[in-house]
Write a structure and sequence with these properties.
The protein is α/β, with parallel strands linked by helices. The chain has 9 helices and 12 strands. The strands form 3 sheets. It has a 5-stranded parallel β-sheet with strand order 2-1-3-4-5, sandwiched between helices. It has a 4-stranded antiparallel β-sheet with strand order 6-7-8-9, with helices on one face. A 3-stranded antiparallel β-sheet has the order 10-12-11. α4 links the parallel β4 and β5. The radius of gyration is 24 Å and the shape is elongated.
Amino acid sequence: MHILVVEDNPDIAANVGDYLADRGHVVDFAADGNSGLNLALRENFDVIVLDLTLPGIDGMEVCRRLRQEGHKNTPILMLTARDTLDQKLAGFEIGAQDYMVKPFALQELEARLNVLGNRARAGLSRQLQVADLTFNLDTLIVMRDGKSIPINPIGLKLLQSLMEAAPAVVTRKELEMRVWGEELPDSDSLRVHIHGLRAAVDKPFGKLLINTRHGIGYSMSDPDAVSA
């Protein structure tokens, strides 16, 4: 990960930096609030380790400006010498994701940073895309060619299965299990719902994405990519 450490204590900064670098992370440093804010706004870090007591502007103000003025969502772990609930709540309220009290174990610090980085990456990957079709798994919004497409709950489950597997074929049995579990419907239900899904995501557009593999199942692919 690419990590920014904003810490004015040179010994703490050196210990944190050496430990993280030895484990394969890339670490940048800032020793005051203004420098840390400028670096965080200018670069794309995976996570930020932010001390609360800093020269210039303090860590709370750095976090507030980063979120409200810079519109940066980089995960922030705050460091403090004071273990007070009010301070923790204030930090969470302005956008920090985690909190550690000095002194701390370097192993625990790295473990928490890995969790924050993994969560952020998972969040970024919560949108599926095949050709010009997108499906946001958080908002359940499906769009194609800039147009929002209303799809019923069963259609959304089928679409997610096909887009996650694309361009591979998903068997009829796999799709039925994904949607209905052990209580399988009659033999025509899947075909009917696939037909409805095609009517929503393919029919109004010039390029067909949903494919039938007769006797096997269905797949989704970009025909331009396949033919390229």
